[in-house]
Batch of 2 targets.
Target 1
Amino acid sequence: MGKGILLGALAGVACGWLVIAFNMFSGVAEFENGFISNALAFSTGGGLFGVIVGGLMTLLEGRLPFSGTLSKTVSISVGIWLILRLGGTLLSMNDPQRFHPDFAQTLQGLLFAVALGLILGVLWNRKPEGSV
Amino acid sequence: MKNAILIRQAVSQNTLRLALALAGAGFAMVVIAYGMDSVVKGAHDVFHDFRHAVGFPCH
């Protein structure tokens, strides 16, 4: 249980920072908050997302129809992101003025989910130091 | 037999703890993803940039 949550949190925080760095180049989202505030927010948001993915990986590892760890972590990560994004789409349909969708941001979000799955998969496969 | 029952109880307790942790994290993520100020005051503003950067619609 601890492995999934710990590795998920690590991967999520790393991915949150990766999104900050990536967004500086892509310019997809115009940041309104300062760097320190965003560093905390992206760490918290990414970390939470990672904990969910890592926890679900612990629960579903033996039940998913894939053989590789990377394909399992990426599918869980993208799956959760899609579910949350679907909720966002419903909000957009209900109140399009307030929750207006943005294709470039959506694409960047999908990349975030894929990257999180990949980072978690790599960490998951890593053997502890000293083991044979 | 007794050991098997104890192991099964320990496993189910771990699963329950994990499920509770996931439910809590999931709820927190929903609050962040949709900026639900009515649930956590300030959640909207604090996570505004994160929401945009990871593709969730916002104002």
Target 2
Amino acid sequence: MRDRVRAGDMPPPSAPPLSAGEREALVRSLDLLLAAAPRAPRVRLRRLTRLEYRNTLRELLGVDLAVEELLPADGSGGAGFDNNAETLFFSTLALERYAALAVQAMAAAKPEQIGPVCDGEPAPEVAVAWLREFGARALRRPLEAGEAETWFESSRALTQAGLEPDEAWRRTLAALLSTSDFLYRGGRGGCDQGRAGAFPLAERLSYFLWAGPPDAELAAAAASGRLQEPAGLRAQVDRMRQDPRALALGESFAAQWLEFERLRTTCEPDGGRFPTYTPALSAAMFGEAAQFFAALAREDRSALELLDADWTYLNEELARHYGIEGVAGAELRPVTLVDRRRGGVLGMAAVLTATSYPLRTSPVLRGKWVLDALLGAPPPPPPLDAGRLPADSKHKDDLSLRARLEAHRARPECAACHEKMDPLGFALENFDPIGRWRDADADHPIDAAARLPTGEAIDGPVELKRLLRQRAGAFAGRLAEKLFCYALGRDLDPADAPALERIVAEFAAADYRMGELLAAIAASEPFRRADGPAWEDY
Amino acid sequence: MARSLRLSRRSLLRGAGAAIALPWLEAMLPRGAGAAAGIPIAPRRLAVLYMPNGVNEAAWSPAASGSNFELSPALAPLAALKSEILVLKNLWNRGARGGDGHYVKTAGFLTGATIAQTTGRELDARGVSMDQVAAAALGAATPLPSLELSVDPVTAGIDVNVNYTRLYGSYISWSAPTTPLPRETDPRRVFDRVFRVPAPTASALAVERSVLDLVEDDARRLSARLGRADRAKLGEYLEAVRGVERRLEFAEAARSREPSPAVAREADALCERAAAHFADPARQGDVTERVRLFLDLLALAFAADATRVATFMLGNAVSGRNFSFLEGVKGGFHEFSHHEGDAAKLDAYLRINRWHVEQYAYFLERLRSFDEGGGSLLDQSMVLLGAGLRDGNRHDPHDLPLVLAGRGGGSVAAGRHLVAKPDTPLCNLHLALLRRMGIAAESFGDSTGELAIG
């Protein structure tokens, strides 16, 4: 209701209108009510995702294990991300695997990373001191009184049970890495007047920006209290988005938001029709999109460059795929684009492939993707008996894909949504199912001209990009909302609306620079709110 | 303690590089554990093979009922097994009506319940799946209570069209209404978990126990500080601790048993085949071989009595798997399932359905190749092949496409086309299967009685 009042949809035309001032006052008091309203308890305890777990082990022990081979994949929930607290499950199988991986990691770690174990049993005070430091890094918080001693005693007990001291020590540390304290985050939040304590905030920030644990500098900022001051928080956000670990924003957040993570899972262009679609090309496609997004954050560039830009990341294979000359080698690197049909996510093969079928493009899927991912206006579901087009555009009868779709739209119950989706997809028809440029599809010349329900006419990707830039506000709102959900590990409650609005306003005021968006989210009340029973009913 | 399952020295050495130290679980093949749990000595096995996207309905059901029926075009690959199968007609899943076209039908296939419409918040299948009811009752008799397998990884994202998280379409096995069970998607990992487990010494068991105590104590301390919702979530972890504990208890109680030479030989061969499949990038797209590695493994796990309950998803809901490797098919599964009555699309749809039936037939033949108790392993088993919807164009959970095979230790009268009364609850079948697994259930889901499969 609040949003409809704010947008002017309410009160309805039949009721007396509100003045601008009255409207603003009403929204403000609704915000106060929302903020004070009791919240339904929500799961805030978040198991580390596979990626977060891998990164955490690597940062802690310098060991990079291929955990994806052993751990079950995480599904998505909430706003569509795999870090959604409620949909991160646990099972006997998972515990077996975490335990096995912890043992593996301990076996692979260098001696200096696993403390005083090499020459017989260490002196208790030395061992406990080391455990206190290691435990704080592993569990992303200072250990409580007695915790390090407990772990040391456990190690001794394992020695008495017959293990060599060295082995007992490693098994103890492996056990620590199998605890719920390690595998989940958001559990033990020190509270400071309803806000997350410094260490939970540091943890939240690092998993948001890096999908990994805090580093020494962030932990130091938490310990000194600087992190909880606005300037200190901002300084950390600015430092961290420029760190190579912030590639996770592209590889995890953007890949899920823009759905090109499918290149790593279910996407399978037909090998016979598209022999150049190799694992290496697929990885380069994924890398282009992920690195482009991460670069926007790193260099504090405008998020509108996602809609259109005169540069991208290419390697030799991907450049060849795009018909671009002069790029040699397997390494992805920034390349200036002369031809503006590329540039921005709409010209990226990762997106174009992820929104196609194995043997043909889908203007419907691509159009729906634009509406949903970029503009935040997904169409309603098709009726259960909705038809499908042929799976292959090289179909026997002689209609073009476009002609078939237009026939389908003649059904009135289909028309309303397809009139919104299809034109956006038609404008991308020059990109084939793996994102190459084409002028014809199975002898039908491509017709990339279309008219939107608004009456606007577009022809081809360059004009589509121009059109989307005219909707910069909707796009920025969608990006901010998605990134906010990713940062929180949940979908939004009505009570989050004022916070999101402030974030979007700050983002817009900064000409949509990514650094501002990240900082505004990190500084927001929902991001900083304390975990646990402080505000949750028992 | 001697190794209970003896793989050849060669395969152990070959596997040593990839072998994973599984610290907490080591147990094999007890003799008599079943009897102690009050379960019949000749154990029965239960497997469910799930097909996404429904079937070409005109080509699915045989025309005649009873024992004198001709196999339909879709079921033709079962010709050599006709006396072993029970084709089921007219069962429906009331809980899966409405909602959306796929997720409700998939996650509710073995629960008979209606999932909560959500993208994640308060995710709830509103029921425990039939296989997990069996696993909870029988799991103590075998090293693994159950196996959950899948060709596809969990489908990512949420379906904004219908407001369900797509993970609903990736799970048919639910150990609790809020907890789907992870599926293994790599046959080599299943092989390791089932067959490559070192035998525990008493002191090793003691170490595992202390480690387990440590993490459990830690989790309890954490739990005490959490609010209600988080405490419930952490319950999954504590439940997992109990699961590992049960495996330790099993290991402790287990007495060694030599595997039959047939099982050991098969395990060797399988290990080699899996290694070859995954060593060659060009072959990894060979989904038929991947499915068969899983099926061979499952047959072997049943033969070794490593588990008695399993589910295997031959695809996630809405699977768009590219079946162009089949003759006469050019495109993805889900697209053809929306056939609109078009003859060419229906033909491709049928060919894809038939591929699923072929894999099922392969599995049944594998089970039939193992001797057990004077008959075959298939005689001791009940293997269900089915989908959560019938016609992929209509997404309708009436008259579900279902075939049961095996004789359930003499409790199933196979070799028939059983035409039930229209709209007989699918849960009547689930109930019949559970009872044949030795579970004295009064009812299951919306069951109105036991389906007469015996």
